[in-house]
């Protein structure tokens, strides 16, 4: 939007938290700034009928009504272009309405357009974006972003965001950012540089380039190449058919690299401890100091410097080459420096001019403003520049393969059509010869099918080396073709068929030699089937390897997620156990001088409780009955402390005792009930625990008759740990409810779990 706006509207921003902006044809740019109003710049234009490469700015006077509709409801503001998509009297004018909106930085927005770009700059809130034809640009922003560019590129620069973005075919560029980003494209390329955090990328055929990534990085491409430089942290990369070059500076927990049909070149930090496994057609590695394990031609497995991070390099059909640090800088960082994107760095946060004296309330937004100066922009030169850019971006290899494919595809279809029509025309001079060609193709195709089926079902699994597989397949195909021709010859002699097409058939299928050289078309009918079965078998091998690779990768990722969840659960319990211990020890300390016998009894009960809870610390689940034993032990200890001030009751619906739940699910809540409830009253304290089944959920209700919860209740660490634990295990299927009316209670609901959830430990 590098020309003057058609109109400007200003809305007071007091109380507005959510913005909805919509256009059909036109871009939307959202800019965060520090003013107490929302400034809406409207850019409306049409194309000149006499010259479609020029456009003319228009305003509401020209079209007879408002360019945008602005409505406010509560804390929501909606800005929508009206009469968008075409010019009222001339459909060739390509009428467009674009918006640039200056808003408070922390506003939440939903932005949609059918034809146009979406830009975000200097924002902190939650944003949802969608454009059908256009690019998405995000710069200098933080917060949460979800969006899709159905047919455009995505650019992210200078951001700290949690984002989930996708494109149906565009390229994705990420640089100088951090956070947690999940991006996918159906056919575009990825370029990423200077990122820290969690980065997950996927493309269905493009190449992936990354430089200076730290944190957790997972990437996948179907057929493209992957080049990774200066990588730190946890890394997973997979491609179906491409090569992978990686330079890993440091590895935290894992580095998994897999390709089907391509080669792997990996520069690894061999001075750190790791458990390494490399598998491929051939595996080459330098001398690795401190290596213990197996190292042979096609396989390497063992530990380096006593073990540590898990490193797996697998190539199904390709080679694996391992380099020591700085041994071979096959990925030069200068390549990224030469092409380093600077669009986000150059993007300035434009401050809107002082328009405080022109603030227009929403209810008066429909009044006709003074028309802005019209601006005529010549687009011819820009069109030429863009056209030249398209020519420069064309890939020579892509053009060559496309040309070959179209030529052979059209040739094959036309040949099939020609011979089909000739076969239906028995009066043709070449009818007998066409029959012979048809019979020869049919015979060869059936023979290839038989040989492939026999080889894949009964022979392939007994062979190890690839060269032996292809050799035996070729010999088998040749034998089946010869056997088929022999059977045809026998039928021909028995029937004594004098059809002339047999003469043409044997002429086509026979192979003649002259001075050691093949001289007729029979050669093609012999060698082309050999090539065809080898190509088919190669693709079948790739498909089988890819299925196996996907299964292995899913298994590895599943194990990784289980290990991660287990570690987080252990960390939560490690924080809960000391929390409970400190409170119990404080209670014992208070009784030592006043009632030594009760302090001794409490100490014995505490030792029994910890012996029961720490004896199975490797498990994350136990039964409800076991959890209630912990709760009863804890309440018994606290009852010694409070005496008559504390009474408790535990009621459980029959048949629920053996259901498994996460460990320490109820004890922290009961502890909070005593700490923040019972301890605040002087007598008749009651703790009531009820467990019942509600459809497919188990409900745990913990009630105390202490003071009501505070309005800003955060639950302390006990409730937070429960919420974190439920989120890790169940996602959105479980939850914690705080009931603060006449009947005060904490209610926890979890699903009745199956064995897969109750065995997180691996």
Could you describe the 3D structure shown?
There is one protein chain. By secondary structure, the protein is an alpha/beta fold. Among the domains are: 1-122 and 349-393, no CATH class; 555-751, Heat Shock Protein 90, CATH 3.30.565.10. The protein contains 13 helices and 37 strands. The protein has a 28-stranded mixed beta sheet that branches. It has a five-stranded mixed beta sheet with strand order 32-34-35-37-36, covered by helices on one side. A hairpin with a 2-residue loop joins strand 34 (685-694) and strand 35. Helix 11 packs parallel to helix 12. The longest helix is centred in the last third of the chain and has 71 residues, at 522-592. The protein is extended.
**Rg from Cα:** 36 Å
Q: Which residue ranges are poorly predicted, with pLDDT under 50 across at least 5 consecutive positions?
A: 49-53, 84-92, 327-339, 348-394
> For the report, how would you describe the main beta sheet?
28 strands, mixed
By DSSP (H or I, 4+ residues per run), the number of helices equals: 13
Helix-residue proportion: 25-40%
User: Could you say which overall geometry the principal axes of the C-alpha atoms support?
Assistant: extended
Rounded average pLDDT:
77
Secondary structural class: alpha/beta
| Beta-strand content estimate | 25-35%
CATH topology of the domain at 555-751: Heat Shock Protein 90
- CATH homology-level superfamily of the domain at 555-751: Histidine kinase-like ATPase, C-terminal domain
Give the class-level CATH name of the domain at 555-751: Alpha Beta
């Amino acid at each position: 939007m590098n020309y003057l706006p058609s109109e400007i509207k200003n809305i007071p921003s007091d109380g507005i938290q959510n913005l909805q902006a919509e256009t059909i044809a036109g871009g939307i740019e959202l800019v965060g700034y520090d003013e107490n109003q929302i400034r809406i710049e409207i850019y409306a234009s049409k194309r000149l009928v006499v010259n479609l490469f020029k456009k003319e700015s228009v305003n509401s006077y020209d079209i007879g009504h408002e360019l945008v509709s602005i409505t406010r409801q509560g804390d929501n503001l909606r800005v929508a272009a009206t009469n968008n998509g075409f010019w009222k009297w001339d459909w060739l004018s390509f009428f467009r309405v674009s918006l640039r909106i200056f808003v408070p930085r922390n506003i939440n927005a939903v932005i949609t357009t059918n034809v146009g770009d979406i830009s975000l700059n200097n924002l902190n809130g939650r944003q949802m974006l969608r454009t059908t034809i256009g690019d998405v640009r995000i710069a200098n922003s933080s917060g949460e972003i979800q969006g899709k560019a159905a047919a455009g590129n995505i650019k992210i620069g200078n951001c700290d965001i949690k984002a989930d973005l996708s494109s149906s075919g565009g390229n994705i560029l990420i640089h100088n950012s951090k956070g947690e980003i999940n991006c996918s494209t159906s056919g575009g390329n990825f370029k990423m540089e200077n990122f820290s955090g969690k980065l997950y990328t996927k493309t269905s055929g493009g190449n992936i380039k990354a430089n200076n990534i730290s944190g957790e990085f997972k990437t996948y491409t179907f057929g493209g190449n992957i080049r990774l430089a200066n990588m730190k942290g946890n890394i997973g990369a997979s491609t179906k058919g491409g090569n992978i070059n990686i330079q890993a500076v440091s590895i935290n927990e894992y580095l998994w690299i897999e390709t089907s049909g391509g080669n792997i070149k990996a520069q690894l930090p061999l001075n750190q401890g790791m458990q390494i496994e490399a598998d491929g057609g051939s595996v080459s590695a330098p001398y690795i100091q401190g290596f213990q394990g197996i190292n042979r031609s096609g396989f390497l497995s063992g530990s380096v410097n006593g073990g540590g991070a898990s490193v797996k390099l697998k190539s199904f059909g390709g080679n694996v080459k391992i380099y020591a640090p700085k041994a071979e800088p096959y990925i030069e960082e200068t390549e990224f420096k030469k092409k380093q994107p600077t669009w986000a760095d150059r993007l300035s946060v434009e401050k809107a001019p002082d328009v405080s004296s022109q603030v227009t309330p929403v209810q008066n937004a429909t009044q006709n403003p003074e028309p802005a100066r019209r601006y005529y922009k010549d687009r011819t030169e820009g069109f030429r520049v863009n056209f030249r850019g398209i020519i420069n971006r064309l890939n020579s290899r892509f053009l060559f393969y496309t040309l070959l494919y179209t030529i052979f595809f059209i040739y094959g279809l036309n040949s099939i059509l020609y011979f089909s029509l000739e076969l239906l025309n028995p009066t043709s001079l070449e009818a007998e010869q066409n029959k012979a060609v048809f019979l020869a193709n049919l015979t060869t195709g059936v023979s290839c099918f038989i040989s492939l089926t026999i080889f894949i079902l009964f022979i392939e699994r007994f062979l190890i080396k690839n060269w032996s597989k292809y050799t035996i397949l070729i010999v088998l195909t040749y034998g089946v073709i010869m056997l088929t021709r022999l059977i045809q010859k026998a039928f021909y002699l028995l029937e004594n068929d004098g059809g002339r097409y047999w003469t043409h058939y044997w002429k086509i299928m026979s192979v003649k030699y002259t001075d050691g050289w093949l001289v007729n078309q029979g050669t093609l009918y012999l060698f082309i089937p050999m090539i065809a079965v080898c190509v088919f078998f190669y693709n079948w091998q790739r498909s089988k390897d890819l299925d196996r690779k996907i299964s292995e990768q899913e298994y590895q990722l599943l194990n990784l997620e289980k290990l991660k969840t287990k570690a987080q659960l252990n960390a939560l319990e490690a924080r809960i156990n000391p929390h409970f211990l400190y409170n119990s020890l404080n209670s014992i300390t208070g009784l030592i001088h006043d009632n030594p016998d009760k302090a001794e009894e409490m100490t014995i009960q505490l030792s029994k409780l910890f012996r029961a809870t720490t004896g199975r610390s490797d498990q994350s689940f136990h039964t409800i009955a076991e959890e209630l034993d912990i709760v009863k032990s804890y309440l018994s200890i606290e009852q010694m402390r409070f005496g008559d001030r504390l009474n408790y009751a535990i009621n459980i619906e029959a048949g629920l005792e053996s259901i498994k739940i996460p460990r320490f699910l109820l004890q922290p809540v009961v502890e909070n009930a005593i700490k923040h409830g019972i301890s605040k009253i002087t007598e008749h304290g009651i703790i009531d625990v009820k467990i019942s089944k509600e459809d497919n959920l188990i409900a745990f209700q913990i009630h105390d008759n202490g003071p009501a919860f505070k309005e800003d209740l955060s639950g302390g660490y006990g409730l937070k740990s429960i919420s974190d634990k439920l989120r890790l295990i169940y996602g959105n299927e479980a939850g914690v409810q705080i009931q603060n009316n006449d009947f005060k209670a904490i209610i926890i609901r979890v699903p009745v779990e199956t064995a897969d959830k109750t065995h997180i430990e691996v």
